[in-house]
Inverse folding.
């Protein structure tokens, strides 16, 4: 499978199914609105505490702020993961030639929210552990687990099975997977550069970054789903032949 063909096919699928960009954009906007509301409330509470400057009052305000920040962070992570899971579900339907909808993708993801969280924790923990050793081991972990969310949602399997399927497929299709990973890595760097430039624009910059992030996640998700399906099919077709040989 040529990665160039995958990129071309993924861009065409994304262009014909622009709705698959909506979950990520919507999740980012919702998390941003929640963060803005919490920040505004925190500033108001700080303004009320500041004039008295009583140690107990400051300590109580600080403790409450930390708890609220933690809860908002968890809520934001859940919303983001649900948005990403819906994007994967919609991309899988689009790759299969169906017309994805927000309703069908959410119905697919809703019973898998806990599995999404566990997968994110597993992938994140393994990647961070590898990165703490050296940067290269972290990249290797991310490389082998890049299909984990796709396997979890599109194949409707458990967390351990999704991780194993991703690692097994990447290992069996090392050449194609390396090229795909490098392309995704390059797109990530390009996204980071453009996002940094847009971030310098007052007011409109954050909104443009949300839209750009949705386009980036949508396209790369379609690429991962398309590649996962193609590589899996190639592996299954080569299996009997290799066994006979």
């Amino acid at each position: 499978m040529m990665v160039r063909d995958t990129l071309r096919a993924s861009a065409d699928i994304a262009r014909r199914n622009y709705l698959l960009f909506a979950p990520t954009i919507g999740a980012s906007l919702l998390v941003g609105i929640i963060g803005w509301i919490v920040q505004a409330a925190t500033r108001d509470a700080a303004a009320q505490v500041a004039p008295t400057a009583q140690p107990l009052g400051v300590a109580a305000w600080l403790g409450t702020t930390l708890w609220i920040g933690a809860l908002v962070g968890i809520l934001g992570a859940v919303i983001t993961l649900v948005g990403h899971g819906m994007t994967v579900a919609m991309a899988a339907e689009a790759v299969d030639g169906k017309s994805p909808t927000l309703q069908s993708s959410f119905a697919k993801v809703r019973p898998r929210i806990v599995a999404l969280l566990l997968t994110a924790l597993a992938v994140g923990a393994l990647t961070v552990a590898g990165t703490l050793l050296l940067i290269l081991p972290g990249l290797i972990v991310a490389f082998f687990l890049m299909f984990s969310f796709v396997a979890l949602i599109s194949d409707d399997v458990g967390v351990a099975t999704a991780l194993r399927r991703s690692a097994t497929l990447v290992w069996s299709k090392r050449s194609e997977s390396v090229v795909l990973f490098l392309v995704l890595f390059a797109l990530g760097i390009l996204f980071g550069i453009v996002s940094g430039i847009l971030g310098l624009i007052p007011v409109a910059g954050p909104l443009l970054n949300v839209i750009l992030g949705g386009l980036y996640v949508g396209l790369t998700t379609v690429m991962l789903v398309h590649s996962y399906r193609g590589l899996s099919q190639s592996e299954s077709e080569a299996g009997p032949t290799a066994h006979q040989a």
Summary: The two ends are 22 Å apart (CA to CA).
